[in-house]
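From the pipeline queue, job 12 of 40. The input is one protein chain; the requested action is below.

Action: predict structure.
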Amino acid sequence: MKLVSAILMLLALTACDQASQRVDTMAREGAKGVVSQTIATRFPQVPKQLITPFTDCIIDNSDAAEIRIFAKSAVIGVDDTTVATVRTVLSRPETVRCLSQSTAGMAGTLG
């Protein structure tokens, strides 16, 4: 009986983990539009061709709380909190590395 209970608990935990991952993936996908809009409107120094790589790197390096801020901004609009959160994520070494790798071959296409 204990073995059956343990197996059922393991299955339940696995299902919860999978559901949590799906929710996180959906939230990150939803946040991309807000981050793209923020980059395009509040960071004019970012060339148009780099908005997608910037967005991807920001989303990939955001934690769950930051993703919630972006999701909220998708409903209420981009505000100073959205911009500050984008700026925070952009300042991380992991994000800088991601941008460097993502844009390495694009130098000749800018201009």
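Job complete. Residues 4 and 10 are 10 Å apart (CA to CA).
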